[in-house]
């Protein structure tokens, strides 16, 4: 893999990770059509995703900081409640317990945890299936068509106004399932989860925020699972350099696209991406039978 190829794939990753057109699908299509060999493919893939992770953290740093603080406070309150329970049992008292979920950020934290559970289960159990799907053009092609349908459906959905305090945990679990299924190449993670949020009645701005912040544990979890396989690959100094450059390019492109997606979803401009997915998906399917 040359430096130019690393930059190209970094741009594709950064653009397509947050725009609802599937980063994995585009990477598979480009690598299959142009026969790009990423050498240490697993390491390069991890670095690209970490680059986009940096973009999410940068854009939503204030929200993430508040969520981390509330997570610590939740832990402290749980410990206090355990102590209260022990005291009440020991001395036959009825001291009140602290209310754990009492603001939007605490509810947001728990919702993200609930969403992460099905994503982790699906991602872990379907890992070999996803890897096999990435070796052909037919799967990303069909999944891109499905992504287009989801975007069109979400575009005509009723305007929602839900923020964390209004969202049920069952909705969070359903969105987590959607994210887990989106590990298939061509099924856009952002497109699928944003569509699920909009269909669930989320406020449009919150739907984007939920989708992107929810990606943080998913990306970290996938990176941890893939790290064990990196040692099996031959890693050279030039590969490491290309990985770092690719990740940096993905981070910059990703940052720009997150800002862009906030405007796109707010202004109901997903239809164009739906037709784009239809076009690229059709090209991939045709290429599968021609190449």
Write a concise synopsis of the structure shown.
By secondary structure, this protein is an all-alpha fold. It has helices at residues 3-18, 23-33, 41-59, 61-91, 104-125, 127-133, 138-155, 169-181, 189-199, 204-230, 237-266, 271-290.
What does this protein look like?
- This protein has 291 residues and is mainly α.
- The chain has one domain.
- The protein has helices at residues 3-18, 23-33, 41-59, 61-91, 104-125, 127-133, 138-155, 169-181, 189-199, 204-230, 237-266, 271-290.
- Helix 1 (3-18) packs parallel to helix 11 (237-266) and helix 9 runs antiparallel to helix 10.
- The longest helix has 31 residues, at 61-91.
Identify the notable features of this structure and list them briefly.
291 residues; mainly alpha
Distance between the termini: 22 Å
Largest sheet: none
Q: What is the H/E order? A: HHHHHHHHHHHH
Instruction: Determine the number of helices (DSSP H or I, runs of at least 4 residues).
Output: 12
Classify the beta-strand content into a percent band. Answer: under 5%
Integer tally of domains: 1
Report the average pLDDT across residues. 88
Structural class designation:
mainly alpha
- Low-confidence segments, ≥5 residues, pLDDT <50? none
Q: Which term fits the overall shape?
A: globular
Helix content: over 70%
* Total number of beta strands: 0
Please write out the topology.
Blueprint: H1 3-18, H2 23-33, H3 41-59, H4 61-91, H5 104-125, H6 127-133, H7 138-155, H8 169-181, H9 189-199, H10 204-230, H11 237-266, H12 271-290
Helix pairs in contact: 1-2, 1-3, 1-11, 2-7, 3-10, 3-11, 4-5, 5-8, 5-10, 7-9, 7-12, 8-9, 9-10, 10-11
